[in-house]
Amino acid sequence: MGTAISSLDPMVSIAGLSKHFHAHQVLSDVHLSVAAGERVVVCGPSGSGKSTLARCISGLESYASGTVTVNGVAVSPRMRHVDLVRANIGMVFQQFNLFPHLTVLENCTLAQRWVRHRSRQEARQTALAYLDKVRLAEKASAYPAQLSGGQQQRVAIARALCLNPSVMLFDEATSALDPEMVKEVLETMILLARDGMTMICITHEMGFARAVADKVAFMDGGRIVQAAPPGEFFGHCADPRIQRFLSQVF
Ligand code: ADP
Ligand code: MG
Predict the structure, then answer these.
(1) Ligand 1 pocket, 188 CB below 6 A?
(2) How far apart are the CA of 177 and the centre of ligand 2, in A?
(3) Are strands 167-171 and 89-92 parallel, antiparallel or unpaired?
């Protein structure tokens, strides 16, 4: 309690994290450390626990044992200030989850007003700055249904950035998109990486992993089987589970 956060402390620290749904063990003794500015790609077969891990990091899911800290603060849905902690973690999901009855600008200002208590003017300025960053400022008064899937996902990214999160967490952000739109969303993610954003990206885009990741983590059966820099991960990976996975996604 009250310990100063040193810049050497990881931005995200997960230790001994285990979770089960009834008798089904979904996460088993997961350890993962993400330094400030580091980009970690998490991959692995469907059902290996990736989304559950993401939800534990973002305070949406309870867990049986272990610790999750983001920027030095423990994360658990039971804690009192979980909304404030959640605001520190920008989540982008496969489904864009924009409010359909609100304009792009309103989608980006709502949480700023409620969670960050910003004035209407400040929220608007921040929203327009991030919409400009994802090259959608001219769509500020459009409604989500008027945008392509790729554009909607870029709005979702801008909306998350508006809260000035410490970490951005992407859970298969491009999986629901048509192939031609995958590229524009990945380019936006690469832009964020270049800006030094701390990122955890659950994705099967191994080209993105190679280009951007500092570390690639492979999950299987609720465990992190391997976490290594991309050169090592793709270069001489002996584990047959990883070999099988890579042969399927490439
Ligand atoms: P991934 O994202 O890697 O596909 P998930 O984290 O979504 O994997 O799921 C991991 C396992 O947990 C799966 O077997 C899934 O069926 C199970 N699971 C996920 N959410 C729930 C839930 N709310 N209740 C019961 N089982 C769940
Ligand atoms: Mg998933």
Answers:
(1) no
(2) 15
(3) parallel
Q: Is 55 in the pocket of ligand 1 (CB under 6 A)?
A: no
Residue whose token pair is 């929220």: 123
Ligand 1 atom 16: residue of nearest CA = 47
Instruction: Quote the strand ranges of 22-128, DSSP E.
Output: 24-34, 39-43, 65-70, 73-74, 89-92
Predicted TM-score of the model (pTM): 0.93
Among 42, 46, 52, say which to mutate for ligand 1: greatest number of ligand atoms within 8 Å of CB. 52
CB distance 202 to 54 below 8 Å: yes
Which tens digit of pLDDT belongs to each residue from 39-49? 999 999 999 99
DSSP 154: H
Who's near 232: CB < 8 A, 6+ residues apart? none
Six-digit token string for 53: 């891990």
Residue nearest to atom 5 of ligand 1 (CA): 49
CA 26 to ligand 1 center in whole angstroms:
7
The pLDDT tens digits of the residues spanning 115-133 come to 899 999 999 999 999 999 9
